[in-house]
Design goal:
Elements lengths: L22 E2 L48 E5 L15 H10 L4 E2 L9 E2 L7 E3 L4 E5 L16 H10 L10 H5 L5 H5 L9 E5 L2 E5 L5 H7 L10 H8 L16 E3 L10 E2 L3 E6 L16 E5 L5 H10 L3 E3 L6 H9 L6 E5 L2 E7 L9 H10 L2 H6 L42 H10 L12 E7 L2 H16 L3 E7 L1 H9 L8 E8 L6 H8 L18 H10 L5 H17 L3 E5 L2 E5 L4 E2 L2 E2 L4 E2 L5 E2 L1
Parallel strand pairs: 2-12, 2-13, 16-17
Antiparallel strand pairs: 1-5, 3-4, 5-6, 6-8, 7-8, 9-11, 10-11, 11-12, 14-20, 15-18, 15-19, 21-24, 22-23
Helix pairs in contact: 9-11, 15-16
């Protein structure tokens, strides 16, 4: 299981928990009527999706050249695999890269817009009731499924697609978070009903979502995620009856590309951990899609674990791009200063990386001790493990640039807490907080051993070792356990019973440009679960939980941004983690590739990239 975190062959757990009126056509701001109309800009607080100044090497321009040459084949080099080939289950940046090329969700993001999604399968913006309890979407006509289904998409296919997200055989990681307030979900999950009654289809081109709470704004934002891509029930039901569902290896497509299959629909172009072959969807109609789809085919070659070798192969080869990895710091440094700088695209990730501190395990259950640890942390040194300032500003709270509430929470200046004021660390302030925690010497003198669980190899291991060193300078006795990335999550950091004190290699990406998608999964006490837990600090503060409950139902964008900004300030004040970078994703391409970045997903857009 995986979640919407950073692509570095990351294998993460996924969050499974969840927490009729006058109709008006409302402007859809920030993907959910909810976030400020500012694009992500992690390199600096820029505009329109800029990653910083326009003359910064690798910075993606505000308006990319979307023109390309038709034809040719592209090879995507990847270290790991997609999490799920089934886009109804995928919750991973690299998986989304494939999904948005093969499936048409109700809404999706054009390359240069990371904030406002465009109608895709939908015919126009969603209609949201004044009370936020009803969302109505009209569908375009003439969109067809790929072979062997070969029929036009209807609203019933969207209804089934969302319903299967609650099927445990599919186990979508965000269905509960964004669709969990739909009327009838509980009965459906308990198998007391055969359908979700809150999803209705008055006609073949209309789907209506009715909710028990006024969370229609955030549901509307989630309609830009792959779960809303249509799935034909009469074809998929037999595959979804299996545990786990086998629809992924028997899927049909609505996008310009499809995973290569045989006449029965069985996928032949997928070898787990080795290869994904995308070919043209013969039923795709360019007249009703904004995608250009220049390429004839795309081959994802997986298993490139040595990212130094893979990076050189991309940069020196032809027709290749990076998939789930970025160049290591040494190569990145050479790119920025060398003649191949134009083969680098620094793309805002829309996320934050942090070192999680377990607020429920001694001695870190003491807030002053946590403040001491954060005050003493050298976050500049942490950033250097990834490549330095070129990869983005040092974080000092959790909502990233470009997401609603960022400026309201303090922007690049931060929320004002003293223990995050000095990015190089403040030993005197750390000692002061340590004394408040009951250690007169200003250093930790307790007997507890601090368990740090990090990822082995590469930049992640360097960060883990750095965190260990910094903690020892404060007097802590530490035990560093290095494991594979998937084991770090599934067996340790995602399991509260493992009682890991410090998880240095965690972080979170937005699901869409709404601050709830950053703060709710990771700091809401209601979302602490025994398995697949995303609230790594185990932060459970009743006032924060209540504030989130109220903020979830706010539709007005300004009010929503202010509410979540206040929550960001409250979370930051609790010192649950060391935020250290709002980073850019470094994507690389061969010289003969006309690369186009999707600024929402932070990597190459397969539907616009072409061969020169």
């Amino acid at each position: 299981m995986r979640k919407r975190t950073f692509s570095e062959a990351v294998v993460n757990s996924r969050r499974a928990g969840r927490k009729g009126s006058n109709m008006t056509r409302t402007k859809w701001i920030a993907g959910a009527l909810a976030a400020a109309a500012a694009t992500v800009a992690l390199g600096a607080c820029g505009s329109s999706g800029d990653s910083g100044s326009s003359d910064q090497p690798g910075a993606v321009p505000t308006n990319q050249d979307l023109n390309g040459k038709k034809g040719g084949s592209l090879t995507v080099l990847a270290s790991g695999d997609v999490d799920y080939l089934d886009c109804g289950a995928s919750y991973y940046q690299f998986g989304f890269m494939v999904c948005y090329a093969t499936q048409r969700s109700l809404y999706s993001f054009q390359p240069d817009d990371s904030v406002d999604p465009s109608p895709d399968l939908a015919d126009g913006q969603p209609e949201i009731s004044d009370d936020g309890k009803t969302v109505t979407v009209k569908l375009k006509s003439g969109i067809k499924f790929s072979p062997p289904v070969d029929r036009e998409v209807t609203s019933a296919d969207v209804k089934y697609a969302v319903e299967r997200g609650f099927n445990p055989n599919v186990a979508n990681g965000y269905a509960g978070a964004y669709f969990g307030d739909l009327s009838g979900v509980d009965a459906y999950e308990k198998k007391e009903a055969k359908e979700i009654t809150g999803i209705t289809t008055p006609d073949d081109q209309t789907v209506v979502f009715k909710l028990d709470r006024g969370t229609g704004g955030v549901l509307a934002g989630a309609l830009a995620l792959p779960l809303s891509a249509p799935v034909p029930q009469e074809y998929a039901k037999k595959f979804d009856a299996k545990n786990p569902s086998t629809y992924g290896t028997n899927q049909v497509a609505t996008g310009p590309y499809m995973v290569k299959n045989d006449s029965s629909g069985k996928v032949t172009g997928y070898q787990p951990g080795k290869k994904i072959e995308l070919v043209r969807n013969p039923n795709w109609d360019s007249s009703n899609d904004y995608r250009k789809a220049y390429l004839d085919s795309v081959t994802v070659e997986e298993g490139n674990n040595d990212t130094t070798v893979a990076s050189r192969q991309v940069l020196q080869g032809t027709g290749q791009v990076s998939g789930d990895f970025g160049p290591p710091p040494a190569i990145l440094k050479g790119l920025v200063k060398g003649s191949q700088a134009d083969q680098l695209a620094l793309t805002p990730s829309g996320g934050v990386r942090y070192v999680s501190l377990n607020t429920q395990t001694k001695p870190f259950d003491d807030i002053n001790l946590r403040k001491a640890v954060i005050a003493g942390a050298d976050r500049e040194a942490m950033r250097l493990t990834r490549g330095g300032a070129v990869l983005g500003p040092i974080a000092n709270h959790f909502i990233p640039p470009g997401v609603g509430g960022f400026e309201e929470a303090g922007g690049l200046k931060g929320t004002g807490v003293d223990f995050l004021a000095n990015p190089n660390g403040d030993p005197q302030l750390a000692a002061s907080y340590m004394k408040k925690a009951g250690y007169p010497s200003g250093k930790y003198t307790g007997s507890e051993e601090v368990l740090i669980v990090g990822t082995s190899g590469g930049q992640a291991q360097k960060l883990s070792e750095l965190v260990k060193t910094q903690l020892e300078k404060l007097g802590f006795k530490t035990k560093l356990r290095l494991v594979t990335q998937d084991t770090m999550y599934t067996e340790f950091c995602n399991k509260p019973k493992a009682k890991v004190t410090v998880c240095p290699n965690v972080g979170w990406l937005k699901d869409f440009s709404d601050p709830q998608t950053i703060l709710d999964p990771t700091f809401n006490g209601k979302n602490i679960v025994p398995e697949n837990n995303s609230n790594w600090p185990l932060l459970d503060v009743s006032s924060i939980n209540s504030a989130m409950d109220k903020a979830e139902t706010i539709v007005d964008s300004d009010q929503r941004n202010n509410a979540w900004a206040e929550i960001d300030k409250q979370v930051t004040a609790q010192a649950p983690a060391i935020p250290w970078i709002w980073d850019d994703n470094p994507n690389i391409r061969s010289a003969n590739v006309q690369g186009v970045v999707n600024k929402f997903n932070g990597n190459w857009d397969l539907s616009f990239t072409s061969i020169k």
